[in-house]
Design brief:
316 residues; alpha+beta; FAD/NAD(P)-binding domain; six-stranded mixed beta sheet; 9 helices; globular
């Protein structure tokens, strides 16, 4: 079949890999400018060189044997490594979290910066109407956050749309800060410190280069309560919380070491819900859905859902 996949994150790319191996013709469509999604890495230029920040997912674990085998292949390819600072089971992409998505996307026809306007039936097949035109397909798979699934499929699969609508994600405010010298903090990770749910010395992850860089993420509850706050206000609060957690006075944090750069990013759909499913596939209609939100908020869940959907579809 000629299959279109909306969403080129880990779930969509995993499904694409399995389907291509099974003999199908696969194309992916993603509204982002490039690979990453919630496994994104951001670059910020500073006077001390480029600072790098994994500002979405911080690490992942591999507990399913199939996923562990996949991660071993990523490690052999040089795009994943263990990160003991976050725990014995923790892995990260190298040299950035998005390296994994980049490597997977390079194997496929991915149309970036492609905003989906609608999917529609076209006789026995489908059309994906997007910002660059129209694609005619035999089947359509939707691999985006639950909040975006419902609008796409409501007219074609109302029960699935209702399931997606009832499975809400938690938001996360993230602050990215680069410093001229190491911050006076012994540990490379901080958890549950006031408004902070997680903070990590990103520059200490394996394969990283550039100046001292920290990712500081608000807790889900704090982020939800302050979701519509201005970025500058979020930076002020989370930097102050970070200063207290590291034992520094805020003026000291901002001046010694010098703050080279700071930005904030609002993730509206950071941590998925869990719908109690693995993947959704209607063979008669040629419509499917996959994503971490069906299983739970882990990178491994996205992989498992994408693989399950491809196996449900089967070979040519």
């Amino acid at each position: 079949m000629k299959i279109g996949i909306i969403g080129a994150g880990l779930a969509g790319l995993t499904a694409a890999g399995e389907l291509a191996a099974a003999g199908h013709d696969v194309a992916l469509f993603d509204k982002a400018r490039g690979p990453g999604g919630r496994m994104s890495t951001r670059r910020i230029e500073t006077q001390n060189g480029t600072a790098y920040f994994d500002h979405g997912a911080q690490y992942f674990t591999a507990r399913d044997p199939g996923f562990a085998a996949e991660v071993a292949r990523w490690e052999a390819a040089g795009v994943a490594a263990r990160w003991p600072a976050a725990g014995a089971e923790a892995w990260v992409g190298t040299p950035g979290m998005n390296a994994i998505i980049k490597a997977l996307a390079a194997r496929h026809d991915v149309r970036w910066n492609c905003r989906i306007e609608a999917i529609a039936r076209d006789g026995a097949g489908w059309q994906i109407r997007h910002s660059g035109g129209v694609a005619a397909l035999d089947a359509v798979l939707v691999a985006v956050p639950a909040e975006q699934v419902a609008d796409l499929i409501a007219a074609h699969a109302p029960e699935w749309a209702a399931l997606a609508g009832a499975t809400r994600s938690q938001p996360c405010w993230t602050v990215m800060a680069a410093f001229d010298a190491p911050v006076g903090c012994v540990d490379d990770c901080l958890r549950n410190a006031g408004a902070i749910g997680w903070a990590a010395r990103n520059s200490a992850k394996p394969g990283r280069t550039g100046p001292e860089s920290w990712v500081i993420q608000g807790s889900p509850d704090w982020s939800a309560a302050h979701l519509e706050d201005a970025g500058d206000a979020v930076i002020a609060v989370l930097l102050n919380e970070f200063a207290m957690a590291t034992g520094l006075a805020l003026p000291e944090l901002l001046a010694v070491p010098d703050l080279l750069a700071v930005q904030a990013h609002r993730w509206r759909y950071a941590l998925s819900g869990a719908a109690g499913k693995t993947a959704l596939w209607d063979e008669t209609a040629g419509l499917g859905v996959c994503g971490d939100w069906l299983i739970g908020p882990r990178i491994e869940s996205a992989w498992a859902s994408g693989r399950a959907l491809a196996l449900d579809i089967g070979p040519v």
